[in-house]
Design brief:
The chain is mostly beta strands and about 150 residues long. The chain has a domain of about 90 residues: Sandwich (Jelly Rolls), CATH 2.60.120. About 5% of the residues lie in helices and about 45% in strands. It is built from one helix and twelve strands, in the order ββββββββββββα. The radius of gyration is 17 Å and the shape is globular. It starts with a strand and ends in a 14-residue tail after the last helix.
């Protein structure tokens, strides 16, 4: 089973590589002895994330999540990186494809399927909903120091 590879780490960061998105099918998420999800990998622990989680998932043509799910507190952002498919939230079905982004509130009953002819690749980011404030939008600081690349 394929695993993310760490490429750099220091006090304030961790960088990993998932590999080519076309090869996500090499990953298998094991949720239990009889429950395996091909083409899915979570990465929050690999990068030591403290405020959210993320996963990549590849759906082959004709495949789907196979279930609806909700969350207790986590909102999710789904970024579609390639392919075409359909997304369902609370019974409403709509098309998604490369460049689509879907936000789902914790209580939204959601599922994804690939009804296209090419693999559907998705990045999902989850975080505690209802916590981002106007102050957070001003959280960044642009530093006056010069950027040095070393080349």
């Amino acid at each position: 089973m394929k695993q993310m590879k760490q490429i750099a780490e220091a006090a304030n960061f961790t960088a990993v590589e998932v590999g080519k998105l076309s090869e996500l099918s090499d990953y298998v998420l094991e949720l239990g002895p009889d429950v395996k999800v091909p083409g899915k990998v979570f990465g929050g622990a690999a990068v030591h994330a403290t405020g959210g989680e993320f996963s990549f998932q590849l759906f082959q043509p004709g495949t789907e999540t196979g279930f609806l799910h909700t969350h207790k507190q986590h909102e999710e952002l789904y970024f579609f990186l390639s392919g075409k498919g359909e997304f369902q939230v609370d019974g409403q079905v709509f098309p998604v494809g490369e460049g689509s982004v879907v936000r789902v509130a914790p209580a939204g009953r959601r599922s994804v399927r690939n009804n296209g002819t090419a693999p559907l690749v998705m990045l999902c980011v989850q975080y505690r909903g209802g916590t981002f404030t106007a102050d957070d939008a001003q959280d960044g600081n642009i530093l006056s120091e010069r950027v040095e690349w070393g080349d």
